[in-house]
Structures are given as structure tokens and as C-alpha cells.
């Protein structure tokens, strides 16, 4: 049998381990930016927005998506993925733990899918530590009424920067979205210039366990571009 010889340089190994520790410490010392996706009403595109913003931002950042909604829609979607989605996910609805999101290490960005309940302790805890709030809503008058209530109840008292994001916008009646944006402007509520059009691609992407950034079916690229524009707009707000 051939004798194998291994040269082990303990000094070199020690230097390497110290290097890894320093790198790990350096990464973990950063405080992540926290985005909360908020609305007091369900079915407005909140989870779709959280998932797709996480996927969009993950192209240039390390991202953690926190599913704080007891319904667990984001966790269900993420669990259907066969090869991962480019970001990590954690499910937690405990308000005390959610209040310590700033202590999370190793991520540039934490996005939180919050529960659709304005009196929720979990929602209050997340809003309290968030740097920025995104409020998705369809442009229909009844949805806007709930959105305005959400702003008055959960957002304005927190004094955090935020924008409303119009979702499920019908491409055949873009005038409704423009009218909704004007209404919000008159109310002094900031809204994204970009909006998210309604496409079957969003439903099919969820069923396949992929974000819209990875969906290759009909209207996939159009749907992806909507969220890319939203992400760019949010980043411009950060730089102000």
C-alpha cells in the first residue's frame, strides 16, 4: 500500500481560523434594514409583495423574509420551492421575539409579512422596529378605505417612512389606478409611482413555489418588471 503523507501547518491553519472568525464577526455586526409589508385587510397582495420584494432584493443583498402572519401564506409558498428562492425564511408570530428583529445578524435586509389585524401585538412589534413600511392595496374604493384606516391606526402614530403600493391593477382600466393615486395624494398619503398589475403569473408562480423573478410563463417578465420598479423606488427613498 502506498504511504500517503499529509503536511499539516498548524500556524497556517490557526491564521485561517482566526480570519474566518473575523469575517464572521464583521458580517454579524451589521444591523439589517427592516421593511414591513402592512395592511389591515387580507387578500390585497401582501404576501405576494413580501415574497417578490425579497426575491428582487436578494439579487444584490442578503435577505431574510419573516412570516409573522399566523396564516403562514409566505411559509406555504416558500415550502413549495424545490431549489430555494434566493433568500431565507423564518416563521414567527411571537411579538416579543419580533421586537428584537434588529438583533438578527448576517443579513442586509429583513422583510416582514405582517398579519392583517390592526390590533395585533405582532404587527405593533414589527412596525415599532421597522425602518420602512410598504402598504399594498388594490385601487378599488373599498380597499382604499381600509388602507386609509390602516394608515391612521398603525402607520401615522409610528412616524415611520412609508409608501402605498397599488396592487392587482387591471391593465384594461389603468385609469382606476391613476385615480387612486390622485386620491391618496389629496389625502397626503405617499404612494409609489410604480404599481403591480394583475397577472395569472402571480398565482401560478405561488403554486410552483417560485418568486415571479423565476417564473418563465406568460407575462412573467412584465410581472417581474413591476416589482423591480417598486424595489428601485424604495431604494431611492432610502437614499434621501
From TrEMBL:
Domain SRP54-type proteins GTP-binding: 32-200
SUPFAM superfamilies linked: P-loop containing nucleoside triphosphate hydrolases
Keyword presence, Manganese: no
InterPro entries: CobQ/CobB/MinD/ParA_Nub-bd_dom, DNA_Partitioning_ATPase, P-loop_NTPase, SRP54_GTPase_dom
Keywords carried by this UniProt record: GTP-binding, Nucleotide-binding
GO annotation terms (biological process): SRP-dependent cotranslational protein targeting to membrane
Annotated SMART domains: SRP54
GO molecular function: GTP binding
Protein name: SRP54-type proteins GTP-binding domain-containing protein
Amino acid at each position: 500500500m502506498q504511504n500517503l503523507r499529509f503536511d499539516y501547518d498548524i500556524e497556517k491553519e490557526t491564521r485561517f481560523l482566526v480570519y474566518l472568525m473575523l469575517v464572521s464577526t464583521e458580517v454579524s455586526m451589521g444591523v439589517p434594514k427592516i421593511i414591513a409589508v402592512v395592511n389591515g385587510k387580507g387578500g390585497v397582495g401582501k404576501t405576494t409583495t413580501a415574497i417578490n420584494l425579497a426575491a428582487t432584493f436578494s439579487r444584490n443583498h442578503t435577505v431574510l423574509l419573516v412570516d409573522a402572519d399566523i396564516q403562514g401564506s409566505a411559509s406555504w409558498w416558500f415550502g413549495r420551492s424545490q431549489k430555494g428562492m434566493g433568500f431565507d425564511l423564518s416563521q414567527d408570530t411571537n411579538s416579543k421575539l419580533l421586537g428584537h428583529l434588529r438583533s438578527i445578524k448576517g443579513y442586509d435586509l429583513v422583510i416582514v409579512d405582517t398579519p392583517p389585524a390592526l390590533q395585533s401585538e405582532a404587527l405593533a412589534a414589527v412596525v415599532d422596529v421597522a425602518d420602512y413600511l410598504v402598504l399594498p392595496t388594490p385601487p378599488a374604493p373599498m380597499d382604499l378605505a381600509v388602507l386609509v384606516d390602516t394608515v391612521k391606526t398603525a402607520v401615522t402614530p409610528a412616524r415611520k417612512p412609508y409608501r402605498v403600493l397599488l396592487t392587482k391593477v387591471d391593465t384594461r382600466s389603468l385609469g382606476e389606478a391613476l385615480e387612486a393615486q390622485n386620491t391618496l395624494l389629496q389625502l397626503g398619503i405617499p404612494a409609489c409611482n410604480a404599481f403591480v398589475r394583475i397577472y395569472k403569473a402571480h398565482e401560478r408562480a405561488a403554486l410552483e413555489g417560485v418568486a415571479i423573478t423565476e417564473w418563465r410563463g406568460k407575462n412573467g417578465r412584465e410581472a417581474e418588471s413591476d416589482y423591480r420598479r417598486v424595489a428601485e423606488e424604495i431604494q431611492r427613498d432610502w437614499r434621501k
